[in-house]
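Example with several molecule types.
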Amino acid sequence: MSRDTGGGGSTSAARSRLLTTATRIFYAEGIHSVGVDRIIAEAQVTRATLYRHFTGKEELVLAYLGQADLGIRAQVEAARAGEETAAGEVRAVARSIADGIRSPGFRGCAFLNAVAEYPDPAHPVHRAVLAHRQWFLDTVTELLARIGDAPADGDGRHLVMLRDGAMAAGCLFDPELVCETFLRGVEDVVRSRGA
Amino acid sequence: MSRDTGGGGSTSAARSRLLTTATRIFYAEGIHSVGVDRIIAEAQVTRATLYRHFTGKEELVLAYLGQADLGIRAQVEAARAGEETAAGEVRAVARSIADGIRSPGFRGCAFLNAVAEYPDPAHPVHRAVLAHRQWFLDTVTELLARIGDAPADGDGRHLVMLRDGAMAAGCLFDPELVCETFLRGVEDVVRSRGA
DNA sequence: ACAAAAAGAGACCGAACGTTCTCCCTCACT
DNA sequence: AGTGAGGGAGAACGTTCGGTCTCTTTTTGT
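Resulting structure tokens for the full complex:
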């Protein structure tokens, strides 16, 4: 068990525990306010093991965001699967986002939270957030472009803006009301494109 | 100069410098990542002076948010003044928000940024953010209620959601496009109420 | 003029930070 | 059987953190 196939990404029980723990704690409590001691303690790993797999805390943060990125891409893909129309896919993605907001332990968007702690645009963490956001904007814009003939750029930005607002407010207001408002807004956008 | 009138809030040159500096740095760089040393150095104040005016860093953070709250209330009030209709007031507030997003040095919403660093709902900083947001939601909802006869709660939440999304994306995407999308969304809400 | 408050200067504290180090043990593959 | 990487355990590094302290100087109101 826990053998590296020699390919690209390394895998091991300790590294996996480290990443899972870091993901949980960083998402729930923020990044700057938790030290590596907390993470290695809860991951039941020694300090040396951390620095054997990551060059430092920053790389651990980047791995956390990388994992979050993979998770969201999978979530979007899963939501789109099974839908037959582009409008159906957009609605399914929106429902999936709403489900996340309603989930216990929801603490907002991991990327928006992270970028609030890394305002420097040149910082790798900040850039990772921008990259993820660009992917999401492109994805929903392409999806919307398949509904009707109107240019989709504005509607894509509109949808992302609603999502950002919903993710930000989802852990500050009543999640149920936030989801209702969000889904209604998405429906308006989809209908305005003739679906 | 710099004399306390004996009323409620104390005023002094050093305290004012401290608060101005803290506001600037906390907003631009975050809270947990800047130490009191940075603040006292740039405020040209000694350590003892900080702790003479504030019980600790946390109180300084709360004072920072209090100042930001006052600033936004004044901004909203200024935008509303001179408008003759409720719809005009909503549009003016939205334009004022867009102006902020377009301003150089815009780093998003001070409250959303702060709450990302204080996820604990029981923490005073977190609660200060919730209080500010509740005020803003109430304000725009009351304003929207004066346009048309339909219930305004949903539209108020919709408008706040757009604002949150715009503030979050305003320093991550092209501010001009963000403002355009935001103002269009606000216009849709206002028009849907018959204005 | 005088007393009180505010501010400056800087030493100092214990704790936590991220990081590096050595030593030894346990596996898995050759 | 042996070799080398992965991991556990823990000491130690220098730095920074938030916060407290004493002492002196400046300012301010009476």
